[in-house]
Amino acid sequence: MDLKKFPHTYVITSVIILICAVLTWIVPAGEYTRETKMVNDTERTVIVDNSFHSVDAAPQSWEVFTLLVKGFEKQAGIIAFLLIIGGAFQIINTSNAINVGILSFIRKTQQLEHHAFFRKIGVNNLVMALIMILFSLFGAVFGMSEETLAFVVILVPFAISLGYDSITGFCLVYVAAHTGFSGAMLNPFTIGIAQGLSELPLFSGYSYRLVCWMILTALLITFVLFYAARVKANPTSSLMYEADAYWRNQTTHGEDVTFESQKASRATWMIYGLIAVVSILFSVCYPSTSFQVGESAITLYILPVFTVCYLILGAIAIRHSNQMFILSLLGFTILYLIVGVMGYGWYISEIAGLFLALGIAAGFAFGMDSNALIDDFLRGAKDMLMAAIVVGLASGIIIILQEGRIIDSLLHSMAVLIGDTGKVIALYSMYALQTLINIIIPSGSAKAALTMPIMAPFSDVIGLSRQATVMAFQFGDGFTNMITPTSGVLMGALGLARIPYAVWVKWFWKMLLFLILVGALLLLPTIYMQLSGF
């Protein structure tokens, strides 16, 4: 497939911006009155019922040329995160640690082929299924989204090394997490806020949402494994076959490939000791960590446990090679990321800082001097520049609709279209409405604050369960996250995976349509069945 036939991502995003600018001249300007309200102990800005009113028009023209700067300002966190991730992983790539780890993993798993059970189901299929379940669970429990960026640069080359393509690797992490996000049980950013604004018990309806998550995740695994098998049988059938040459040149597979392992140096032991001291200090300062799961909290002595594991496993890894020690650092970084997000509310800044520390530690452990480390970091950050610009442009779409004062007008017009209809039509209208809104407002919490104060009372009027309304919001908010060009996270993840947006849409649209239809079917029981928690 000749990728030159596809419009550049910049072109697609720019055309959407121009269309939105034209709409600001056509669509009447309007706004809702907003007020601050406490939702789950957090201040949220919500819409006042029946408060939509006309305002002076603010048509946009030359302002389109300012959107890149404004987009960079709005998405500065994600853009900085991309640059730091790119720089950190360039340092790790220079050490060949990931290649050594992938090659070792492949050879270990190939040994399982000697067992009839694993040979029948396929070791690679088992590994990919477990990875997708893990990330889907993360999306369902704590709303993993931005955090997937850190894993794209790990799992895309991993998939390439197994003989698949970058689309397969992208599905293992980004699509899996957002499928779980769509069928979430405990996601505080969508379910928690939407139910709080709808005055429902927090995370009620958990049992049915669990069923929905299992169905959606099973369908995802089935779809991806069939696609991966087709690509492995005929690599040129992939839309990314030519573009994936970049990854194939950096990753390895096959029995005849070897890497020279580097023995641990004094610098490696110094990094090991420094991290050990820091880990011990954190264990003393934070001996226990509370994880919020639904309405209950679980307290674990997780940091002291991690410290002990690091002291033991880090020393074992160093005795093997420098690369294995760097891989152990990467593994513990991922574990600390999970603990930080779930236990301490970490976000972009903290995660970026964590991976920056990983890159610095890995560089010095590998024996780099300061200049070499900085050169590698800058080279990796430079590779992320295209993705950073895309994120800034995509953010400009939302900015121009906001500054043109037509976002609320579009929302109000779509809400009026629902009108006086039956329960099924009304519910599906809400579902379609939320799906459309998500294309221009990808933030789940912002969309919940915008739509639920309107939708929840509306569902009371027509005799529809508020839980059904929340689920319509949940599915509408989730599925299109995997295709909307206004999502800085999606555009950033595609940039990291080096998948052009047009290619992604061409490949994913059928799967997206299928997920939307499945979501519609899963909404029906919320009307006709008395479900637990409803």
| Number of E-type strands | 6
Distance between the termini: 49 Å
Number of alpha- plus pi-helical segments: 24
In angstroms, what is the radius of gyration? 24 Å
Helix content: 55-70%
Give an account of the 3D structure.
The chain is mainly alpha-helical and 534 residues long. The chain contains 24 helices and 6 strands. α1 packs parallel to α17 and α21 packs antiparallel against α23.
Short description:
By secondary structure, the protein is mainly alpha-helical. Helices cover 69% and strands 5% of the residues. It is globular and about 70 Å long.
Task: Provide key terms for this protein.
6 strands; two-stranded antiparallel sheet; 24 helices; mainly alpha; two-stranded antiparallel ribbon; 69% helix; 534 residues; 5% strand
Write the layout of secondary structure elements.
Blueprint: H1 9-26, E1 30-31, E2 34-39, E3 42-47, E4 53-54, H2 67-74, H3 76-94, H4 97-111, H5 116-121, H6 123-142, H7 149-161, H8 166-182, H9 188-197, H10 206-233, H11 245-248, H12 266-285, E5 289-293, E6 296-300, H13 302-320, H14 322-344, H15 348-365, H16 370-383, H17 385-403, H18 407-418, H19 423-440, H20 444-461, H21 466-478, H22 488-497, H23 501-523, H24 525-528
Antiparallel strand pairs: 1-4, 2-3, 5-6
Helix pairs in contact: 1-17, 2-17, 3-15, 3-16, 3-17, 3-22, 4-14, 6-8, 6-10, 7-8, 7-22, 8-10, 8-21, 8-22, 9-20, 9-21, 12-13, 13-14, 14-15, 17-22, 18-19, 19-20, 19-21, 20-21, 21-23
